[in-house]
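ok new one. same drill as before - structure tokens go in, u give me an amino acid for every spot. 346 of them this time. try not to just spam alanines like last time pls lmao
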């Protein structure tokens, strides 16, 4: 049977907003996951093939979907754009028993909301679905939460995800107030190019999702700890959720550096081309612009500092390898180490 609906929770209005469609050719997995998610308050149906998936979407109109990356000879990833055409607000989570960095990046770029590796526990799936569904309600105006006072997330340089990444290399910024012999090697004018490069490497959809995750985290921290301003940001930088977002982003960025020389030249070019023009540059900018290739490598090395630490720790490395594979984990380590080597900073 291609499409089967699990029993809905009667008399519960929330069940209507918690409909989940599982698209997976492994019937045992689909049925076990459906039974477990029902216990967590979800109303679940499943489709076992790409051919039955879209009719099931039309019939069941789910709020969220779990989609196997491989459906026989068909890629489950190919279904996501068609699902999004029919249900633009539906949450799409990819699950796979064959993780690799290419499929992970592919999933993130086709508007998939998340990417989970089998075997995956129903409790984890439930938490992931709850997170995205609750966030969708907030975005739709049902549960809007204001940013704590003093924390401005509006401008590109003040965005939470951007600030999280920039925090990794902000100590390298050139400060005009210090003598030129003691200034950092990176002018702040690298930021437009840096943000453009991040958008291209991660994809605009993933950047926006990380943006929202970071905003959610800093809002929660601000409310729980009654923090604002610099104290709220410092708590955010130290938060485990922020560290996880930064590390995953570093891994996805590092995957683009398989050909390190070519990608390093590309990054330098994007930064240079997005920088100030001669007609508007200040004395400080002209003295440090354009940044040298070594300066860009110092910035890149600082960005990959978490990745370098993670791949050097055996326990953390094993967790990364479980999700992305040993070959990709080795690539991450090599890229992080090469950036450090080229920066000349030990």
């Amino acid at each position: 049977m291609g499409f089967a609906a699990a029993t809905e929770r009667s008399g519960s209005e929330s069940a209507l907003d918690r409909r989940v469609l599982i698209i997976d050719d492994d019937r045992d997995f689909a049925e076990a996951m459906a039974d477990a998610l029902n216990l967590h308050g979800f109303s679940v149906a499943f489709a076992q093939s790409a051919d039955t998936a879209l009719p099931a979407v039309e019939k069941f109109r789910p709020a969220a979907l779990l989609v196997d990356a491989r459906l026989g000879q068909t890629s489950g990833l190919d279904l996501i754009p068609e699902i999004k055409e029919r249900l633009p607000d539906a949450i799409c989570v990819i699950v796979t028993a064959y993780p690799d960095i290419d499929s992970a990046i592919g999933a993130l770029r086709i508007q998939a909301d998340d990417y989970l590796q089998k075997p995956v526990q129903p409790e984890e799936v439930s938490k992931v679905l709850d997170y995205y569904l609750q966030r969708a309600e907030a975005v739709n105006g049902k549960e809007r939460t204001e940013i704590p006072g003093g924390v401005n997330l509006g401008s590109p340089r003040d965005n939470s995800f951007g600030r999280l990444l920039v925090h990794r290399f902000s100590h390298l910024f050139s400060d005009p107030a210090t003598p030129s012999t003691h200034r950092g090697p990176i002018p702040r004018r690298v930021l437009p190019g840096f943000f453009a490069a991040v958008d291209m490497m991660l994809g605009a959809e993933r950047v926006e999702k990380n943006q929202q995750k970071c905003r959610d985290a800093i809002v929660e921290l601000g409310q729980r700890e009654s923090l604002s301003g610099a104290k709220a940001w410092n708590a955010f930088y130290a938060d485990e959720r922020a560290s996880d977002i930064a590390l995953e982003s570093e891994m996805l960025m590092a995957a683009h550096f398989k050909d390190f020389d070519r990608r390093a030249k590309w990054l330098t070019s994007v930064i240079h081309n997005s920088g100030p023009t001669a007609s508007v540059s200040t004395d400080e900018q002209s003295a440090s612009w354009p940044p040298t290739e070594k300066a860009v490598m110092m910035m890149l090395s600082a960005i990959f500092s978490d990745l370098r630490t993670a791949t050097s720790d055996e326990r953390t490395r094993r967790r990364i390898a479980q999700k992305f594979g040993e070959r990709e984990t080795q690539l991450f380590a090599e890229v992080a180490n090469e950036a450090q080597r080229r920066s000349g900073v030990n």
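Strands lie at 3-5, 19-23, 43-47, 64-68, 70-71, 74-75, 91-96, 114-117. and btw Confidence is low (pLDDT under 50) at residues 1-16, 141-158, 277-286.
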